Amino acid sequence: MANTDHVEWLREGRDAWNGRRKLVKFKPDLAGTDFREVLDQAFLSAPHSNFFSRYDFSEANLRNAKLIDLDFSKANFKSADLSHADLTLSSFDGAAFDNANLNGVVAAESSFQDARFPNVEWTNAILRDAYFAPDFSEADSLSPSQRAEISKEPRITLDFGLQASFKEFFGTHKANIPTVAPKKEPTYLVTFATNRNLIREREWITFGEQRDSRLHYGACQVLVPSSHKVGSLGSPLWKRLLKGDDRLQIRRTYHLTSDLYWQFVHKNFSELFNSTPPTVVIHGYNVGFEHAVLWAAQIGYDLGLMRGINLFSWPSRDQVHAYQADEAAVEASKYHLASYLLDFIENAGGRRINVLAHSMGCRCLAGALEIIGSSNPEKLKRFNHLIFAAADVDQDTMRNVGAHVIGNSGRTTSYVCSRDKAVQLSAILHQFARVGFLPPVFLMDSVDTVEVEKGGLLELGHSYVSEAREILMDMHQILKSSTPPEERFAIKPGVAGHWVLKN
Question: Span 55-80, mean pLDDT?
């Protein structure tokens, strides 16, 4: 039986399929798959469709699969197992079959012009009226009966857009039009885990605002324009019209199985790499999935985390007036986050990990740490740095959590501000002091509280942590160099036993 995830990924299109295979190594299991059933009827009825052209099927298990009446031109079947597969009426022009197993295949009336077959087994293959190039160099590997049944003429058909013999049918002349190679866009990698509901939209996937009972895993490639400015997701429309588009944009989202995700994490953040420890970020209230990915990419890129950043996205409603719904969602999500962090610790190749949470996401982190501290206290020492930014967390709750958790992990930093209106409103709503708002200033052993009161930064409001260059520089020293507060150049001692951002 085929892997159902692998079959579903076929529907996302060539770019997503091949991109996923470049991102993480796996052998597709597509045994018995009927490839026509993968496509919807609208696509099958489209003329000259070439959906599976140039797909990377190398090392795939395609035993007994049905690759019938479709276009696989220039696809990569190197070392694939196609034994007893049905390839009837399909185009494999220019495809690569190096070291593939073609024993028992049925390839009647298919086209293999310019395809390559070094070291291929054809035992019991049925090749009736199949067409190969006149100079088919591997013909000696066929039996006399197989050579007798192959076609001597190219087959021309327009039934489903086969590319077989299209060069002969339309001619090989191309207009002498100069072409410009597309400019390669720099992208930044955000891997993610989320308990949001999965939404599939033909060739695209995303995640919604509803809770799921399990975690989904994946990765996003985010475009970072050369005009990107530190602390910015992009300029307003009027500036973009004048100076060009400088927004971060999601180029591709890949859904991964848990096994492939942790395989990638282990490889990417192994101790073999002399890089910053892996960093997990947790977004706050009123944030949709796409915005969370862009936020994570901006922080990771601006902090210089060049091996990517890891996002835990809980199902925020992405609505200003859904505060109570987000409170319920973040409370339920702490169990998923605890499980995710424990798995991350096990798969990080011996590395300690950093965790940065913002706003209501700090509640999720505090709750997850409490769960880990109760069930796996020995794992707490695997946390390198914990950063609570503009934390919408009750101060007494944080003290109770911190008494058992924070002192047993690495350094903990809390960024606070007296003009953060969002956290101030939360304090008024709950009628209890919040960690991220002062007065009163939150003080606790093993927690470095940094007050943000510098003129010019306050207008950033609740998002000051990700948008202020000075704070990003301070976090850079924490995450990259483990620099203690007394040695960091962006802060100075305050009067209440905490630290203050320098003016």
Answer: 97
Give 343-363 as a 3 state SS string.
Answer: HHHHHCCCCCEEEEEECCHHH
Contact 446, 405 (CB under 8 A): no
- The CA distance from 219 to 45, in Å, is 32
Amino acid at 297: A
Alpha-carbon torsion (278, 283, 287, 288), positive or negative: positive
Angle in degrees, CA 428, 423, 285, rounded to 5: 115
CATH architecture classification, 1-179: 3 Solenoid (2.160)
| CATH number for region 187-501 | 3.40.50.1820
Give the C-alpha separation, 28 to 89, whole Å.
Answer: 23
Scan for tokens 């690759």, then name that residue.
67
Q: What is the pLDDT of residue 139?
A: 66
189 neighbors 22 (Cβ within 8 angstroms)? no
Task: Note the pLDDT tens digit of each residue in 237-246.
Answer: 434 333 445 5
Which DSSP state fits 127? -
One-letter identity of residue 173? H
- Per-residue model confidence as pLDDT tens digits over 181-195: 556 678 999 999 999
- The tokens for 91 are 């185009």
CATH 3.40.50.1820 boundaries in the chain: 187-501
Inter-CA distances, 420 with 298, 389, 437, 439, Å: 21, 11, 7, 12
The three-state secondary structure class of 385 is strand
Look up residue 47 and give its DSSP letter. Answer: T
Burial of 316 (0-12, 13-18, 19+ CB in 10 A): buried
Question: Which H/E stretch holds residue 427?
Answer: helix 421-430
pLDDT > 70 in the chain, percent: 85
Which of these ranges, 42-56, 129-143, 155-169, has the smallest mean pLDDT? 155-169
